[in-house]
TrEMBL record:
EC nos: 5.6.2.4
Gene Ontology terms for molecular function: helicase activity
Species, as recorded: Paenibacillus aceti
Keywords: ATP-binding, Helicase, Hydrolase, Isomerase, Nucleotide-binding
Protein name: DNA 3'-5' helicase
Highest taxon in the source lineage: Bacteria
Gene: uvrD
Family annotation (InterPro entries): DNA_helicase_UvrD-like_C, DNA_helicase_UvrD/REP, P-loop_NTPase, UvrD-like_ATP-bd, UvrD-like_helicase_C
Length: 707
């Protein structure tokens, strides 16, 4: 019997033993009648039994995916079996399967060869030696595959990528999946990083940023179970379709209830806007489809979105908030009835003294309540019942009138005041206005006048809200994930920092995919500088797991030529077809697209994207393909679900997604301007196995047409 056969047999036996133990525990739990009564203690016990039943039933299908033989210094060698959920043996004394998030399981991911290794446990650093790292595929209780990625016995004992490459070669369906069995060391480091840190992650396309962020949430919930709750964690994602695309990973990891939304949806809810400002799809269209808007301009223009997302604007609002506080109390005494007076000085004393540490809207509320109490005390001193009645009536009217003299501290009203939308401003703002670029000021004022709030105004509105009001604990988070963070502004992150405890952020993105030039960041330093040095850690992920080597090398060349960046992806050694570079004309375009669809139509692949430059192009192509009898989905930015199969979409909406094959159409100078290299890079890097590029007569300089 060779080594492989004996390993397989050994694992088959061990699997039988593990399944028998899990089945026995499950049976025992199922034999306990389900409690349906009203006793609270019994209900709690029943809930925990139900949770165990659910977990054991899940483990009974695929109990583990890896084995690590670890010999702790001066202790016996222990084969550790690692799975998505931890399971003890029948008597509950020994671990049968170790949860992938447990400290010791980190060895499975961080071990990269060598004689000694260590891991961080709650009791300190544990040292020892690894003699075997084995990947085990179990599907529906059957052992399918055993691959040793490290063995001390091997001739060249190094950790190999064999299993990873096997996994990456699989076809994907229309959902992102968990990667617990193949998390790489550099990804593991991010997943297990300390909770109270603002992690900033620059990761090349396909480096697993989104996936890693989702695994990190599962890890944090496991590691800090006493301190955090799933409902108080949030993922900010670019659109609802993307949220649908990632929706299976967390349930696969046994995690539910984490909030997932766009920043605009969440912000509009907090501020109480009736409609969510149109983001993305409309804004993007205007920008990407309007060639004229950029033509010829060399210097960077002032983009209102960049300005309103800047720390400079935040600082202006800090000054504005100080002004609001200083000018909030009306310049008059309060007279509940003739002859009785509460001076403004006294009112100011309350406002500035006792209530000083409350946010201004709360202070206003407190002061008005105090005035009301003062009135009631004074009323008691009335000389007669008739006088009391008369005074009471007057006081009621005057209290109302006096309250109206106070400014409206609703954040939208404050913002409108800053842009002088109202005739009689509550606060003097001329000096502040002078600091806002005129074009931005005018555009914003016009838009607010029409009753419109734009997406780029949301950070400021939230900031005014958070500055003026006491934040309800229901509004604050235990952890915030920001995906595609290169399209976020520093101000957005700064304002989110007000809504999270301990700067607990996972901020991920890729500057090479920063296609929303009019609002995103240019350097990660713009985000890092928001935090003190000890509050933030920066990681760079450079290995790309999604695409074949051929695709990554091609996409890298686009970046090298078009952007001159050094943020290039390093491929995992997985080879596939050369990139299909085809000259296309209006006449043969559909025929070439059909060629690119072959494997999907034959059932070998499950997803193909045809990427156009604009939404209008996508609509036209969608119609043409549908007329040929193909079943094609048009993705237009308004969709909330991603169905897989053949999709036609503008390239800018493909961000974050991936497809077995990608066909990029219209790659010519008319559709791709010199500044669109990043956009093309995004398109190319969506492909897992095949990339087809249909270029026209005049391809931009950054497009290689021969390989
Ligand atoms: N360690 C890993 N093992 C197996 N697959 C992995 C691993 N890391 C990432 N992947 C796969 O690589 C692909 C890309 O992952 P993901 O979408 O999370 O990357 P990303 O960095 O967010 O990409 P992009 O910025 O290009 O949208 C996914 O199919 C994911 O399953």
């Amino acid at each position: 019997m060779d080594d492989f056969q004996s390993a397989y047999q050994e694992e088959e036996q061990r699997l039988g033993h593990a399944l028998a133990s899990i089945d026995a525990q499950l049976q025992q739990l199922r034999s306990i009648p389900v409690y349906v009564g009203d006793d609270f203690t019994e209900q709690t016990l029943e809930a925990s039994r139900e949770e165990r039943r659910r977990k054991l039933a899940q483990s009974a299908q695929e109990p583990y995916f890896g084995r690590l033989d670890f010999e702790e210094t001066d202790k016996e060698l222990m084969p550790l079996y690692i799975g998505k959920l931890g399971v003890s043996n029948v008597d509950g004394q020994q671990p049968l399967v170790i949860d992938w998030r447990a400290p010791i399981a980190s060895l499975f991911y961080s071990f990269t060869g060598g004689n000694s290794t260590s891991y961080e446990a709650p009791e300190g650093l544990i040292e020892g030696k690894v003699s075997l790292k084995r990947n085990i595929v179990i599907r529906q209780r059957e052992l399918e595959r055993v691959v040793d990625t490290f063995s001390e016995q091997a001739d060249t004992p190094v950790v190999s990528d064999e299993f990873l490459v096997y996994r990456l070669g699989e076809n994907k369906d229309n959902r992102l999946r968990d990667i617990v069995s193949t998390i790489q060391a550099e990804q593991d480091q991010i997943i297990r990083a300390m909770k109270n840190t603002a992690l900033i992650i620059q990761g090349v396309a396909g480096s697993g940023k989104t996936t890693v962020a989702l695994h990190r949430l599962a890890y944090l919930l496991y590691q800090y179970k006493e301190q955090i709750r799933a409902e108080r964690m949030v993922i900010f994602a670019p659109n609802m379709m993307f949220i649908d695309y990632i929706s299976e990973v967390l349930p696969e990891l046994g995690v539910g209830d984490i909030q997932q939304c766009t920043f605009a949806d969440w912000a509009a809810k907090v501020i109480g806007l009736e409609t969510v400002p149109s983001d993305g799809s409309l804004g993007l269209r205007r920008w990407f489809d309007d060639e004229a808007r950029n033509a010829g301009s060399q210097a960077e223009p002032i983009y209102p979105g960049r300005y309103k997302g800047s720390i400079e604007f935040k600082e202006l609002l800090d000054d504005y908030l100080l002004r609001i506080e200083a000018e909030c109390v009306p310049q008059l005494d309060f007279e509940p009835w003739d002859g009785k007076r509460l001076s403004r000085n006294e009112i100011m004393e309350w406002f500035e003294g006792e209530y000083k540490y409350y946010p201004v809207a709360r202070r206003k509320e407190r002061v008005l309540a105090r005035i009301h109490r003062w009135v009631e005390m004074e009323l008691k001193k009335s000389p007669s019942a008739a006088a009391l009645k008369e005074r009471k009536k007057k006081a009621q009217q005057r209290e109302k009138a006096y309250a109206k003299k106070w400014p409206d501290l609703d954040s939208l009203q404050l913002y409108r005041n800053l842009f002088q939308v109202k005739k009689n401003a509550d606060f003097a703002v001329e000096d502040l206005q002078a600091r806002i670029p005129t074009a931005v000021w005018k555009e914003t004022k016009d838009s607010l006048k029409k009753g419109n709030v734009q997406e780029e105004d949301l950070a400021a509105l939230l900031y005014l809200y958070a500055g003026a009001n006491e934040l309800d604990s229901k509004l604050t988070f235990d952890h915030i994930v920001i995906d595609e963070a290169q399209d976020f502004s520093p101000f957005q992150v700064a304002v989110l920092d007000r809504f999270v405890r301990g700067h607990s952020f996972t901020i991920l993105g890729d500057l090479s995919q920063g296609i929303h030039y009019y609002k995103g960041i240019r350097e990660w330093q713009e985000m890092q500088s928001l935090f003190a040095e000890e509050e933030t850690v920066y990681y760079a992920l450079t290995r790309s797991y999604r695409s074949t080597m051929e695709i990554i090398e091609y996409a890298n060349e686009v970046l090298r030529r078009g952007v001159g960046t050094d943020l290039l992806a390093v491929p995992v050694f997985r080879s596939g077809d050369p990139v299909h570079l085809l000259h296309a004309s209006e006449e043969n375009k559909l025929a070439l697209i059909r060629q690119g669809l072959t494997k999907l139509l034959e059932g070998q692949y499950r997803t193909t994207a045809i990427l156009t430059r604009t939404l209008d192009d996508a609509k036209i192509l969608h119609e043409a393909l549908a007329a040929e009898g193909l079943s094609v989905n048009l993705i237009d930015g308004e969709m909330t679900q991603y169905a897989g199969g053949i999709s036609v979409l503008p390239v800018y909406l493909s961000k974050g997604l991936e497809f077995d094959t990608v066909i990029v159409t219209d790659v010519d100078a008319e559709h791709y301007r010199p500044q669109d290299a990043k956009l093309l890079y995004v398109g190319c890097t969506r492909a897992l196995h095949e990339l087809w590029l249909l270029y026209g007569d005049h391809a931009p300089d950054y497009v290689v047409t021969e390989v």
